[in-house]
Design a protein that fits this description.
CATH class of the largest domain: Alpha Beta
Oligomer: single chain
Largest sheet: 7 strands, mixed
Distance between the termini: 50 Å
Shape: globular
CATH topology of the largest domain: Rossmann fold
Order of helices and strands: HHHHEEHHHHHEHEHEHEHEHHEE
Number of helices: 15
């Protein structure tokens, strides 16, 4: 059954507003309060979460209408209704390591919403919007949306899908660089999975490095973080593996970064790139993944990359042929797509 454009945009409006409600629920600790304390009336939630009772009631009613929460008896007076967080929704909304935890999409959308006028100006003058302008809320959302895959799948299935690399990282004295590490979840996971290896995360965004160091401290991780771009890799190397996860498409000068990575690899080392699992070729209309990736691209990834000139201006939708071309330009002799289910990502192994 075909949906008309007006129906699609109406549904998109409903979905956007519901993501704003998820933002409120996570930022105010409302989902966590329901998870920790069980079913609650609006006055109960107001007390446990420290919010005004009238706001508590309206949010709870909206959540029940949207199907995110359930209500025991909708026929009771408003102040007597008890609302609960279904067990099957808890991971999505409250567990940052759950594979289904997509609540951080709400943070990312809120961060983008705050910069849209700057994006409009960039479209007109050909400039960009620096990553830092998207703010802490976007940065948190981006780190948290990648956290489940980087904390679990990266070391549980992605790297083990390359047995020779796995064996190399298990040796005493192995060295790993995690470039554009963001919140550092991948760096921390690799340090935990390969206790004999030295693991260093690099990022040029000071706020991200500070947050990564905080996460490492809280996790008791020995991962180390450096505020620097890829230009320092050669002097810090050599490395047995370099990771570039969900970052290649964001780089203004990706070939320069890949050249720096190649120069810092030890003999026999590999650069592991994870980026979007979009279609091999442009087709229109596209599937939901393609639609989402273009949505991020027009509002964030492309403007952020265009903020630094000259810029390759790749955008979020980076296809395999683009990765291969960038790798070849940087002097890599082999670009292999790793045979592993990486969800919304595609995993590449680049060899000098």
């Amino acid at each position: 059954m075909t949906t008309s454009l007006d129906e699609r945009l109406f549904a998109a409006t409903v979905g956007t507003l519901e993501l704003f409600s998820v933002y409120l629920g996570t930022r105010l600790g409302l989902y966590q309060a329901l998870r920790d304390h069980g079913p609650q009336r609006s006055a109960d939630l107001a007390g446990t979460a420290g919010i005004h009772p009238r706001y508590a009631r309206e949010w709870l009613e909206q959540q029940a209408v949207a199907g995110l929460l359930t209500v025991d008896d909708p026929g009771l007076p408003a102040d007597e209704r008890r609302y609960r967080l279904p067990a099957e929704h808890a991971g999505v909304l409250t567990d940052p390591d759950d594979a289904a935890h997509v609540a951080p999409f709400a943070d990312m959308l809120v961060g983008i919403a705050g910069t849209l006028d700057e994006v409009v100006a960039a479209y007109r003058d050909g400039g960009g919007v620096p990553y830092s302008r998207y703010g802490a809320v976007f940065r948190r959302g981006q780190g948290d949306i990648n956290r489940p895959a980087f904390r679990s799948d990266l070391v549980g299935s992605w790297l083990p899908a390359i047995p020779s690399l796995q064996q190399r990282l298990e040796r005493p004295g192995a060295r790993v660089a995690d470039v554009a590490c963001g919140h550092g979840w991948s760096t921390i996971a690799v340090a935990e999975a390969y206790p004999e290896a030295e693991v260093v995360g690099y990022d040029a965004d000071a706020a991200s490095v500070d947050e990564a160091r905080t996460h490492a401290c809280e996790a008791g991780s020995r991962a180390r973080f450096v505020l620097a771009d890829a230009g320092v890799l050669a002097e810090d190397g050599p490395f047995d593996a370099i990771l570039l996860l969900e970052a290649l498409h964001d780089l203004s000068r990706p070939t320069e970064v890949l050249v720096a990575c190649r120069s810092a690899l030890a003999p026999g080392g590999s650069l592991i790139v994870a980026d979007e699992a979009v279609a091999d070729d442009f087709t229109a209309p596209g599937d939901d993944l393609e639609r989402m990736m273009y949505g991020w691209s027009i509002s964030h990834c492309l403007p952020a990359a265009m903020a630094e000139q000259p810029s390759a201006a790749i955008g979020t939708v980076i296809r395999p042929d683009t990765v291969r071309a960038l790798a070849s330009d940087a002097g890599f002799t082999s670009t292999e797509i790793v045979d592993v289910d990486a969800g919304m990502f595609r995993l590449y192994r680049l060899v000098p």
